[in-house]
Amino acid sequence: MCLESSSRFSTFVADSLPPAQGLGGPALNRAQATPPASAGGHNNTTRTRVHLWNLEAKYLCAIVGTCTTISEMRKLAIKSQIDSPGQYSDYQLHNIFVNAAHDGSRPGRLLEKLLQQKFRTTIARYRVTPESEFGALWENALKGGDVAGSYYTLLTNSRTPAVVQEKAVGDIHMLSHISGASCRIDLKQLPELKKKNRELTAHVNRLNLNHRKAIQGWEKKQVILQKNCAELKSHLARQRVPDIDLSTEQRELTRLRKKNSVLSNLVDRLRQEKNQFARQVSDLQRHALVPQNGAQGADPAVFANKPVDPIPRESGASDIGHASGSRPELNLNGKKVLYVGGRYRQAPHFRELVERRNGCLFYHDGGREDGDKRLAAILSRADLVVCPIDCISHSAIECVKRECQKLNKHFIPLRRSSLSAFAQALDKVGP
């Protein structure tokens, strides 16, 4: 503890200060240090505040050291009219205000005024709090960091229980020891930390130097690359100059290639048409396509658009002829029959049978070569649709069935793709 009595304070000022350099004038005496009677805690029992000079001397050192800073004390020294306060060390200035707080002299009163203003919020909080909760407020202050204000308030409040006051004094005392030990450890580690700091600084400087060298190297490489790029562009521009003379020939070559492609397609189409006409002529010559028995309403041109390979009559044809001898054939009365699927080589026999019965046959291969557009066109013109289920895909037959239902067409499925089955189906069709 650095507490001294009032007589020792006068002795300290007289001994430690140069002659004629007191607290702003003559040296303090006991009469000057005694506070006014109205300011004493014993003359006003209604007040809860206890002045610093009314506290026990053992508490003042901790209050001054904990609740004030060195800069605040130096400002108070100037305000207290102490001559040349800068000549005193921090420890000497601390002792001056501890003794002034004990004697109630001008520096002590100014110090109390400063502390009252500085901790007015904490003082007001304790004023409205019951004494039984002072201990909890002090614990919260230790956890939250508001130790200085709570410590000053607890020691200068007459309502503070003695147990709480002693605990606060003990906590501050131990905190000072912990702080001192921490400072000693920091001072012990300081040389090593300074050494590491120097090493790290040197390492950072080396890294910065290497970084700058790397940047300079990349900048040089970039300049070289830009120069090479400019040379390549110039060389490429010089090589493209002769291409101007070839542009006309290239365009002509492109035009000829397009023309050749068009002509090739035309030749292929003409060949296909030639083969188609040849097959039609051969078919007409072989089967003598002439409407019989009032079949003028038939449309042979529809079948003329579909090439048919000439083949010998199937064995089923003789069966139909034999059957026709037993009973008269059904007259279709010009009905248009659409046959979808089956084998393409059977189409001439089916057509001959239909035309012999005074009808007209349209044929569609079910999608192998004929498209959906042609099927839709001839399906709308047909009166009934025949479809063999053994020689057509399931998707195609389902499509034909849906279209027949949509257009309200008579749909006849056949179990097999034969001339006899087709003739039997026609026999079931009414006139």
Describe the structure in brief.
This protein has 431 residues and is mainly alpha-helical. It has 17 helices and four strands.
Low-confidence stretches: 1-46, 289-326
Overall number of domains: 2
Query: Using only CA atoms, what is the Rg?
Result: 61 Å
The count of DSSP E runs of length 2 or more, i.e. the number of strands, is: 4
Order of helices and strands: HHHHHHHHHHHHHEHEHEHEH
User: What is the share of helical residues?
Assistant: 55-70%
Q: Give the N-terminus to C-terminus distance in angstroms.
A: 136 Å
Give the biggest sheet.
4 strands, parallel
Cross-sheet strand order for the largest sheet: 2-1-3-4
Distinct helical segment count: 17
Secondary structure category: mainly alpha
Task: Choose one word for the global shape.
Answer: elongated
Characterise the protein shown here:
The chain is mainly alpha-helical and 431 residues long. It folds into two domains: 6-190, no CATH class; 289-427, Rossmann fold (3-Layer(aba) Sandwich). Helix content is 64%, strand content 5%. It has 17 helices and four strands. It has a four-stranded parallel β-sheet with strand order 2-1-3-4, sandwiched between helices. α16 (394-407) links the parallel β3 (384-388) and β4 (410-414). α3 (57-67) runs antiparallel to α9 (147-155) and α4 (70-79) packs across α5.
